[in-house]
Design a protein that fits this description.
Distance between the termini: 22 Å
Number of strands: 6
Order of helices and strands: EEEEHHEHHHHHE
Structural class: alpha+beta
Number of helices: 7
Strand content: 5-15%
Helix content: 40-55%
Radius of gyration: 17 Å
Length: 182
């Protein structure tokens, strides 16, 4: 199973949770403007994010969101210790893209976008015990293809967490999801 931790892991994990951005120009640091809904936080190890989720986070990152424009000199998706804010609508688009990918994994693996397939060459370590003497991309590609249920199960759990996070966040007045790296 590819790990998703409920709650906060302060190690090399990304932290994903609902947030509110309450702009106050008198605050010295924009971090003081962020209210976090930590009881709905999940943590995902950075290599897992890189392999399975970064493509989607990068694709749907919107620099024009007010909260993203007020980050500390960051441009684009920031990997280390910086809020990356997403609207619920953007998260719905990420979920839609992941569901389309899951369908391709199940039904038409060879039609998956090349950039995603390249990331999947790192996925072998999450799917099976791998013989390092056979460390080449063709073997890795086939291992992932043969054990695709592990990746599908991860994506389905991730979708459930995000949908629940948005539901609880919205009912408590939160309007963004933050994705912050280690």
């Amino acid at each position: 199973m590819i790990e998703i931790i409920e709650g906060h892991n302060p190690s090399s994990y990304f932290w994903i949770m609902p947030v509110k951005y309450n702009y106050n120009k008198n605050n010295q640091d924009y971090w003081d403007n962020v209210e976090r809904f930590e009881e709905n936080e999940i943590s995902i190890e950075e290599d897992i994010v890189d392999t399975f989720l970064y493509y989607f986070f990068k694709k749907h990152f919107d620099e024009t969101i007010f909260a993203n424009r007020h980050r500390n000199e960051s441009e684009g998706f920031e990997w280390y210790l910086e809020y990356n804010f997403y609207t619920f609508e953007a998260m719905q688009e990420i979920i839609k893209d992941i569901k389309e990918l899951v369908d391709k994994i199940e039904n038409n693996y060879d039609s998956i976008d090349e950039e995603i397939l390249e990331k999947f060459t790192n996925a072998w370590s999450y799917t099976v015990d791998f013989d390092c003497r056979k460390d080449n991309d063709v073997v890795k590609y086939n291992v992932v293809k043969e054990h695709k249920e592990v990746i599908i199960e991860f994506y389905n759990r991730f979708i459930c967490y995000i949908e629940e996070m948005m539901k609880k966040g919205q009912s408590n007045g939160y309007d963004l999801i933050s994705v912050m790296g280690p």
